[in-house]
Specification:
Radius of gyration: 29 Å
CATH topology of the largest domain: D-Maltodextrin-Binding Protein, domain 2
Structural class: alpha/beta
Number of strands: 11
Strand content: 15-25%
Shape: elongated
CATH class of the largest domain: Alpha Beta
Mean pLDDT: 88
Order of helices and strands: HHHEEHEHEHEEHEEHEHEEH
Number of domains: 2
Low-confidence stretches: none
Helix content: 40-55%
Distance between the termini: 79 Å
CATH architecture of the largest domain: 3-Layer(aba) Sandwich
């Protein structure tokens, strides 16, 4: 087995010389003596058998070979620095990784807001996000695959904090026959047309939710696909209002006039699988998700108030 003849320390010293213009400047930045800096570079050139630096006035610049080699060494230097930063974070009690299961009903803007805050505060903790539907979050919690989960039902044996309520609206695309009925629709009429539903991603105890009386039920794996199917006029369905506000606002989707059940609600909860053992990164992500939901709800309430004002 061959071992590298050069070290990342030598390449980092060379990088500092180039970035700061000379041996003395690099020594100051690296908090080393100038003789130590000079020795590192001389030793590096000796080990490689190639000249890496040349003088240009009072500054030092890379030779063509030095520039090519430093380009390849730079990602290795950055990776080593990240590795050491992660080691320091682990030593301080920060988790190496946090795993989160998110029900597809959770608003995307709130999730991205929480993840952005997490990235800025916990740069040395990896994050895994599992996108699930209905009981898929239960499976992730029971199997120990996640530290946090956003669920539509708190599974037995766990405790959860309510985050928000989501409203489902029965909708269809313009031109759908159900929109031309001219009277409140009942179940008998709905049964004759395809209804799209999203498949439960869980395997332990998968469940169905909502009215499922249609003789032609189209089952898809993603809420985005369900929206596409309804928007194409191929089926009707109950879709999350917060995901279809633009389509409702500009008439690309229209609410069905049902005799009952035009809307239904589903709650979302945040579950910490083991709150007593949760590390600082897990707790920070949980707090960030709560704050992101409040921001999302505030923005949605503001939009609703403006729309009501414009139509008054």
């Amino acid at each position: 087995m061959n071992l590298p003849r050069t070290s990342l320390e030598q390449w980092r010293v060379l990088q500092a010389i180039v970035e700061h213009g000379g041996f003395a400047q690099a020594a100051s930045v690296l908090k080393r003596s100038q003789s130590a800096v000079s020795y590192n570079v001389a030793r590096l050139q000796e080990q490689l058998g190639i000249s890496l630096l040349e003088a240009e006035g009072r500054r030092m610049k890379l030779t063509a070979a030095g520039a090519a080699l430093l380009r390849e060494a730079t990602p290795l230097i950055e990776a080593a620095l990240r590795l050491e930063a992660r080691a320091r974070a682990l030593d301080a009690g920060w988790e190496a990784e946090v795993r989160l299961a998110v029900d597809s009903l959770f608003p995307t803007d709130a999730l991205l807001c929480a993840l952005a805050a997490f990235a800025g505060h916990c740069p040395d903790t990896r994050l895994q996000v599992h996108e699930v539907v209905m009981s898929g979050a239960d499976d992730a919690l029971y199997s120990g695959a996640v530290e946090l989960a956003i669920v539509t039902r708190v599974p037995a044996g766990f405790m959860g904090d309510w985050l928000m309520d989501a409203t489902f609206v029965a909708v269809a695309a313009p031109g759908h026959p159900l929109l031309a009925a001219g009277h409140p629709l009942g179940g008998d009429e709905l049964r004759h047309y395809p209804q799209v539903v999203v498949r439960d991603s869980g395997t332990r105890q998968p469940r169905d939710e909502g009215w499922l009386g249609a003789s032609q039920r189209w089952t898809v794996s993603s809420p985005h696909t369900a929206l596409d199917v309804v928007s194409a006029g191929l089926a009707y369905g109950w879709l999350p209002e917060h995901r279809i506000r633009p389509q409702l606002a500009d008439g690309r989707l229209l609410p069905l006039q049902l005799a009952q059940g035009r809307q239904r609600k589903s709650s979302l909860y945040l579950v910490n699988a083991a709150p007593e053992a949760a590390g600082p990164a897990t707790r920070y992500l949980a707090d960030g998700l709560r704050q992101a939901v409040q921001q999302h709800l505030s923005q949605q309430n503001g939009k609703t108030a403006r729309q009501n004002s414009n139509t008054a």
